[in-house]
């Protein structure tokens, strides 16, 4: 039995830091609602779906990956002894450039099946994908990087959306399409899409307010150091600095804190002292620079202006 090592345990907590703040819980509940109601209703002809939208760094991908992990499924054993991986929720990135063939290949891969050998026809891959969706009892399909449809030049956006809608209808599953606020353009291509795809917006923390301080408190609680870090101590400049450096985006903030603790030596083989883990301004500035790169003042201003514009449009 391996002896408990508090320093390795802390390093592991830092590396796997993920905070389920209230908005994440709200969105997970929305996902749960769709799945429960789809199972309960007698009519299986129409399903409603979501477009989950937010700027880069707000945590869309992690939210979806963690939800998929929470609903990872189980192994079902048939009467003849055949084992089937039941996967109620699957997550995948859309291919770029987007093609219907590669879309079906992505579904197959996400369900753990091998790619058909050679150069299979689209109908063959489609049949394989739908067979797996039914056999593995998929209830929800999360499609990340839906922006790839907007960036694909050789396929009409309407055709791509129809292919996605067909998977939902024929597979009798709920879709969650994930992307930046710009993908709302796809949701508005057709009145039918607007009706079927409800918008969900995952926003950044727009101010260093009570909600942001609560988020920082949850981070500190999860870090669980033997002394207070003061991330949410608004009597200091630390919370405001973290908000400004991260643009209020949880993903950027978490990555920067992980990088800050790396700089402080948490992952060194000889790390054995918590007293040296002080998050000074210089350490945080260096950590954010390592995560975000050498943003100029002009680039930072442009990012903030883009955030404000999208928030105003919403």
Structural overview:
- The chain is α/β, with parallel strands linked by helices and 314 residues long.
- The chain has helices at residues 6-15, 22-40, 60-70, 100-110, 122-135, 147-151, 157-171, 184-187, 191-196, 210-223, 238-246, 250-263, 281-292, 297-313, and strands spanning 49-53, 74-77, 83-86, 89-93, 140-144, 174-179, 197-201.
- The protein is built from 14 helices and seven strands.
- The chain has a five-stranded parallel beta sheet with strand order 4-5-6-1-7, sandwiched between helices.
- Helix 12 packs across helix 13 (281-292).
- The radius of gyration is 22 Å and the shape is globular.
CATH architecture identity of the largest domain: 3-Layer(aba) Sandwich
How many DSSP E strands? 7
Measured between the Cα atoms of the first and last residue, the distance is: 54 Å
What's the helical proportion of residues? 40-55%
CATH class bucket of the largest domain:
Alpha Beta
Order of helices and strands: HHEHEEEHHEHHEHHEHHHHH
* Fold-level CATH name of the largest domain: Rossmann fold
Q: Bin the strand percentage.
A: 5-15%
What general form does the structure show? globular
> For this structure, what is the CATH homologous superfamily of the largest domain?
P-loop containing nucleotide triphosphate hydrolases
How is the secondary structure organized here?
Elements: H1 6-15, H2 22-40, E1 49-53, H3 60-70, E2 74-77, E3 83-86, E4 89-93, H4 100-110, H5 122-135, E5 140-144, H6 147-151, H7 157-171, E6 174-179, H8 184-187, H9 191-196, E7 197-201, H10 210-223, H11 238-246, H12 250-263, H13 281-292, H14 297-313
């Amino acid at each position: 039995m391996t002896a408990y090592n508090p320093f390795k345990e802390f390093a592991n907590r830092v590396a796997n830091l993920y905070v389920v703040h209230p908005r994440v819980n709200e969105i997970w509940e929305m996902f749960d609602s769709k799945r429960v109601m789809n199972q309960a209703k007698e009519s299986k002809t129409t399903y409603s779906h979501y477009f989950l939208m937010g700027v880069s760094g707000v945590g869309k991908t992690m939210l979806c990956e963690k939800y998929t992990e929470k609903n990872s499924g189980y192994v079902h054993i048939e009467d003849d002894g055949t084992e089937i991986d039941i996967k109620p929720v699957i997550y995948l990135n859309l291919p770029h450039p987007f093609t219907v063939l590669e879309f079906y290949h992505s579904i197959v891969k996400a369900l753990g099946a091998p790619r058909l050998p050679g150069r299979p026809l689209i109908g063959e891959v489609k049949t394989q994908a739908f067979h797996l969706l039914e056999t593995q009892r998929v209830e929800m399909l999360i499609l990340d990087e839906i922006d790839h449809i907007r960036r694909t030049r050789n396929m009409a956006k309407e055709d791509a959306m129809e292919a996605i809608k067909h998977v939902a209808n024929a597979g009798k599953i709920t879709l969650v399409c994930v992307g930046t606020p710009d993908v709302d353009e796809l949701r508005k291509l057709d009145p039918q899409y607007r009706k079927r795809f409800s918008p969900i917006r995952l926003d950044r923390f727009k101010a260093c307010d009570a909600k942001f301080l609560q988020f920082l408190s949850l981070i500190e609680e999860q870090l669980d150091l033997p002394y207070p870090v003061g991330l949410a101590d608004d009597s200091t400049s630390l919370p405001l600095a973290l908000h400004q450096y991260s643009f209020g985006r949880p993903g950027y903030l978490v990555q920067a804190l992980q990088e800050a603790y790396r700089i402080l030596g948490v992952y060194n083989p000889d790390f054995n002292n918590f007293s040296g883990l002080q998050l000074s301004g210089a350490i945080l500035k260096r950590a954010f620079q390592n995560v975000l790169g050498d943003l100029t003042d002009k680039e930072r201003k442009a990012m903030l202006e883009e955030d404000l514009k999208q928030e105003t449009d919403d």
